[in-house]
TrEMBL record:
Pfam families for this protein: cobW (PF02492), CobW_C (PF07683)
Entry function: Zinc chaperone that directly transfers zinc cofactor to target proteins, thereby activating them. Zinc is transferred from the CXCC motif in the GTPase domain to the zinc binding site in target proteins in a process requiring GTP hydrolysis.
Membership in a protein family: Belongs to the SIMIBI class G3E GTPase family. ZNG1 subfamily.
Organism: Roseomonas nitratireducens
Official protein name in the record: GTP-binding protein
Domain CobW C-terminal: 235-330
Signal sequence interval, chain numbering: none
Taxonomic classification: Bacteria, Pseudomonadati, Pseudomonadota, Alphaproteobacteria, Acetobacterales
Catalytic activity, as annotated: GTP + H2O = GDP + phosphate + H(+)
Amino acid sequence: MTRRKIPVTVLTGFLGAGKTTLLNRLLKHPAMTGTAVLINEFGEVGLDHLLVERLDGDTVLLQAGCICCTVRGDLVRALGDLAQRAEAGQEIRRVVIETTGLADPAPILQTLISHPLMLTAYALDGVVTLVDAVAGDATLDTEAEAVKQAAMADRLVLTKTDLATREAAAALEGRLRILNPVAPVLRAMAGDVAPEALLGAGPFSTEGRIPAVAAWLAAEETEAAAHAHRHADGIEAFALVFDDPLPWDGLATWLEMLTVTRGDSLLRVKGLLNIAGEARPVVVHGVQRSFHPPARLAGWPLDHDRRSRIVFVTRNLPRGIVEDGLNAFLDAARQTGILKRG
Ligand SMILES: Nc1nc2c(ncn2[C@@H]2O[C@H](COP(=O)(O)OP(=O)(O)OP(=O)(O)O)[C@@H](O)[C@H]2O)c(=O)[nH]1
């Protein structure tokens, strides 16, 4: 008996575009039962595996680093492991790969199109690319990876249209249609999109796409390409960890100030926080110049200590400056608290 090939969907989009938000909504849908999720994050400490709420199934965290640099190793190994488990009888009906926002999709696609494992056990079901309606236009101007993500999509999803003007969203959609004439452009508010609109979008084809797509894929076929990926100069990812509960006032003021003054250098901020006086963890998100409203999680993730972690992806903004600035604000906030109590 030949086994059914497991469909694989690639979920991509630049930093903070809304991938995890959409994935969380999607996974709650009955059509997504039996979905295994592979998550890859850029940087020394990822948070997404803690922020993806699973009801069932597998979530595999690919080694920290960049999926486009580790793709020929970790990704293939993780897919091989899942294929073996499916062979042994575990229900794995679908795989979704959430890439880091900085991922170049070309090496991922090249691997998924041509690796022997993919040809025997899997079927590429489509590339879904999310584009932030607020930050997307500026991102396409400066980030080569974002352009490739959009051009290689089988489905484009415009997110955060609630935060953008109608004109800005329409202009961005026009730009996306030129960059990618074949992918339908959908809109999703807070990740709300029907699975049918995203699934079954493959197999990948270069037909009708801008000529650069075929060239990007061809460039990945060479052995040298495996070692040639270099992210844009000056990009740094780091995590700050705090043992004691943090004062919300000092932290919020500092984060808002940082997004206003250094928004161009601040590609992404993501924090899982233990806030003084709060029983539940608080999640904060900054995307370039936007600071999204904080959210409380239902509880602390199991097997996770209660230290606060804030992950930063910056360009030309060194860790030391961020760390010193935050510590100064926190000290000031603590002292004000002491004075108030006194
Ligand atoms: N207003 C609004 N906010 C959204 C929407 N979609 C996502 N967000 C917010 O955008 C922020 C980033 O969303 P994530 O889902 O973490 O983005 P991501 O693409 O997974 O981020 P990385 O993994 O760091 O690249 C969060 O605060 C979300 O709540 C939307 O349609 N509207």
